[in-house]
Design goal:
Layout lengths: L2 E4 L2 E3 L5 E7 L8 E6 L6 E6 L6 E3 L7 E6 L4 E6 L8 E7 L16 E2 L3 E5 L2
Length: 124
C-alpha cells in the first residue's frame, strides 16, 4: 500500500487547512492514523479512523478543531484542521495497515505503511 499525504502549507493562526491521504490500494485501505513531528520533537499521534469509519479518536490538543473523514470512492482520507495554532506546526504523516480494526490507534508502531509527510506551518 502506498500513501501520499498532501495539503500542507503556510497558514496564519486561526486559519484552516485540509490534509489529504491518498491510498494506492483500495482493498487494503484500512484504519488510518495521522501523526505529526515538530522540529526537535518525537512523532506524536494526532487522530485516527477505524477500518469501517465508525470510530475516530482525537488527542486532546486537537479535539474540537480537527476532523477526519474518508471518501471511499476516491480512496482518500481527509484531516480538516480548523482554528490552527502555532503549536500545530509540524510535518504531518498518515499511516495505515492491512489489518481490520474495529477501533483505531495513535501509536506509531501499530502501522505498517506510511506516507511521505506534508509540512504545516502556522505563523503570522
Amino acid at each position: 500500500v502506498q500513501l501520499q499525504a498532501s495539503g500542507g502549507g503556510l497558514v496564519q493562526p486561526g486559519g484552516s487547512l485540509r490534509l489529504s491521504c491518498a491510498a494506492s490500494d483500495t482493498e487494503h485501505f484500512g484504519p488510518i492514523g495521522w501523526f505529526r513531528q515538530a522540529p526537535g520533537k518525537e512523532r506524536e499521534g494526532v487522530s485516527c479512523l477505524s477500518s469501517n469509519d465508525d470510530n475516530t479518536f482525537y488527542v486532546d490538543s486537537v479535539k474540537g478543531r480537527f476532523t477526519l473523514s474518508r471518501d471511499h470512492a476516491k480512496n482518500i482520507v481527509y484531516l480538516q484542521m480548523n482554528s490552527l495554532k502555532p503549536e500545530d506546526t509540524a510535518v504531518y504523516y498518515c499511516a495505515t495497515t492491512t489489518s481490520y480494526w474495529q477501533y483505531c490507534s495513535v501509536v506509531p508502531d501499530s502501522y505498517d505503511y506510511w506516507g511521505q509527510g506534508t509540512l504545516v506551518t502556522v505563523s503570522s
